[in-house]
Amino acid sequence: MYFLHSLYLSPRKKTEGNYMKKNLLKEFKKVAFVGASVLLSAVFPSQADACTGITLKSKDGSMVVARTIEWGGSYLNSRYAVVPRGYVQRSYLPGGQKTGLEFKARYGYVGFSVEQEEFVVEGLNEAGLSAGLFYFPNYGKYEDFDVKKSASSLSDLQLVPWILASFKTVEEVEQAIKTIHVVASDPRASTVHWRMADASGRQVVLEIVDGEVHFYENKLGVLTNAPGFEWHLTNLNNYVNLFPGSAAGKQMEDIDIAPFGGGSGLLGIPGDFTPPSRFVRAAFFQAYSPKQDRAQGTVRQAFQILNNFDIPLGVVFHDGEPPVDMPSATQWTAATDITNRCIYFRTMYDSKIRSIDLKTIDFSKAAYRTAPLDKDKEQPIVPVVIDRVVF
């Protein structure tokens, strides 16, 4: 720690000492930014960088988007953030300097961040626009960073807060992204792709490949990771034989054959945790889920479906030896009721579903606030008290 060493061992005047402390803080922030961006994307590129997203609609017309976030390499220090209108942010650039695009919140929003509070990876704004980030390793490629374009350059890990702070519809995002330059947080880090949905029900996937921006209509409402979104849609054709329920029994010569149990119509659905397999499972589980009457029932159903995508920590590392002591690689799951402006979450440390209702927040007066998703890092266990019965 060179900076600490020089701060404590070199006597200075008070003004010079204050100057050094300010520089020290800046250096620490740069180191933290670079470390966080590389940690999120480069240290464990294949073991646990998994996300699964689904979309459900209820009979009353409410639209719910939900997703998991997996990271088995370290605890993500996830937090929620309440961002008011008028809040000003500035993007980090490669190297950790906070000298990129500056943007002021036109809309208030609530989001979930990882590693640093600026890195909001999922959220909803007061206008009903939802946005989320999903890992996209080895297939995406942003344009190269040009220092001359710093003022219009935006870190990939800060695209979600820019979207939530600035826009009301997907169409607005499509137009505005032409005016900025999305760049890698760190050259060593993985790329990501994004999902956006607005109050009209329109949902798109954004991918940047070879420096070119591509928007894809996501009528299915499912998203995972690599390969590209269009590839995943094509891959569904390999599973056209699958159907809900059980297959009918058959007779072969003089032998009757029948399913061993219920659900044989989905025999052959891939069960591993790779992005292609999770995409297929998510598509079928979502498609065959009974439509609920109202939004809250749909939110609960989304969490039930995503239970199937919780990744046990040991299975994503060789010899089942994870580098950290955590209960799961699936660190949290979120569901966003776009129609009713409410966002829900639960975590690997507390499976109780919690909610933040944006309608109860006055974003014109609220202060910026951020807090950990979990105060205690241990699943609560509630004892059942059995009353003593006296005969």
List keywords for this structure.
five-stranded antiparallel β-sheet, eight-stranded antiparallel β-sheet, 391 residues, Penicillin V Acylase, Chain A, 7 helices, alpha+beta
Mind sketching the topology for me?
Layout: H1 2-9, H2 14-41, E1 53-57, E2 63-70, E3 79-83, E4 88-90, E5 102-104, E6 109-114, E7 116-125, E8 130-135, E9 153-155, H3 159-166, H4 170-176, E10 181-183, E11 192-197, E12 203-209, E13 212-217, H5 229-235, E14 250-252, E15 255-257, H6 275-287, H7 295-306, E16 330-337, E17 342-347, E18 354-357, E19 369-372
Parallel strand pairs: 9-10
Antiparallel strand pairs: 1-2, 2-16, 3-6, 3-19, 4-5, 6-7, 7-8, 8-11, 11-12, 12-13, 14-15, 16-17, 17-18
Secondary-structure arrangement, i.e. CATH architecture:
4-Layer Sandwich
Mean of residue pLDDT?
Answer: 88
Question: Which regions are unreliable across 5 or more consecutive residues at pLDDT < 50?
Answer: 1-29, 41-46
Distance between the termini: 71 Å
> How many H/I helical runs?
7
Shape: globular
Give the biggest sheet: 8 strands, antiparallel
Assign a percent range to the helix content. Answer: 10-25%
Rounded to the nearest angstrom, the radius of gyration is 23 Å
CATH C-level label: Alpha Beta
